[in-house]
Amino acid sequence: MRFLILAVLALATPVRAQEIAALPTQGHPFAALPLPGAVIVTVTANGRPDSATGLRVFTGPSPAALKFDCFQAVDAKQVHAIAISADRNTLVVAAGDAGLQLFSRAAVINGCHARPVTVSLGSAASRQGSIDVTISPDGRYAFVANEYGVVSTDAAGHDLRGHVAIVALSYDDKGAPTGGRVVGRVATGAAAVTSVVLSRDGRRLYVTSEVARPGARLANATVPKLAHGGCRQGDGPAQPFGVLSVIDVARAEAGDARSVISATAAGCSPVRAAVSPDGQTVWVAARGDDKVLAFSTDRLEADPAQAFLGESDSGGQAPVGLAVFAGGKRLAVANSNRFGGATATGNLALLDAVPSAPKLTASIPATHFPRSVSVGGDGQTLFLTDYNGGQVQVVLAN
């Protein structure tokens, strides 16, 4: 275990951060879901004999004392994001081309004996690529980022890939999940849909898509910081900038095709978003620009062209995961450095969450491809998944 105390950087509010544990995952960890006395980690097998795809449960009296408890199998080749219902009874896992996996939380936490319920979002051949998921406050719907799912074709008959699926969830009389059905699919005007985040009141869904489609009508399409060309990821071809979309949840649940109420340019490869506790700011990780961007939630609806509030260097390369913590005062950024080569390492950067001018305050070294970061119930414990490093770093920060 490593113990790291981070130095305070000049011109920023003082911050202390300490790695207090490292949890081995026996595979590729994508996301960590902190719960009282436990954390559930989605893990995809890495090809080694002792590795398997599923949920690894760690329990303990404190974040620093978490130990591996049990392994919950899933019916999928990959597992990505995990969400929990507001009543804390249901877990929903985005499982790549397998769609969704539903679980009883109690059955997972208490011995990993849950029977997963699969909700298909399309055939395996259609490559939906379910990567992120969130659940409506009433637990009736799941909103799924299908990174590659086809929702329509263009004028030349080419598939337009990437959409948000709206899934109506069903339960038995004891409240256990029994299934789900797709009631709508929402195109965002861009490809590679990578994250879905609900507003604090549950009325809006914020969606990031990596690549804007030609001819899409977008706010801020002439603002150089948000809408420039030459977006590259590693050795890939140059592509257009990406998009942050706002979806009206009630309309989407009703199957209304007009549910996208605004869309704005959002830099190169925007891949994750996070909402401030006061609901006033949406933060976006622009992976291809090594930036974090801040947008006003009010202006995204009333005047999208004026919604951009500020930006900052992410404190590393290729930022992916985002989390707001410390009562909204801090922003945690998982800088993946995923295009830096097989031996490249990333970091966890901590920023003052000031929308007009966020400032880097500290940085913790990570291993290979840190991918997501989540916040424990105390608002100060961070869980960083090192996807290619095979571990979850537990960090205490203020």
Automatic annotation (TrEMBL):
Domain of life: Bacteria
Keywords: Signal
Signal peptide: 1-17
Keyword Signal: yes
InterPro entries: Host-pathogen_enzymatic-act, Quino_amine_DH_bsu, WD40/YVTN_repeat-like_dom_sf
Entries under SUPFAM superfamilies matching the protein: YVTN repeat-like/Quinoprotein amine dehydrogenase (SSF50969)
Name assigned to this protein: Uncharacterized protein
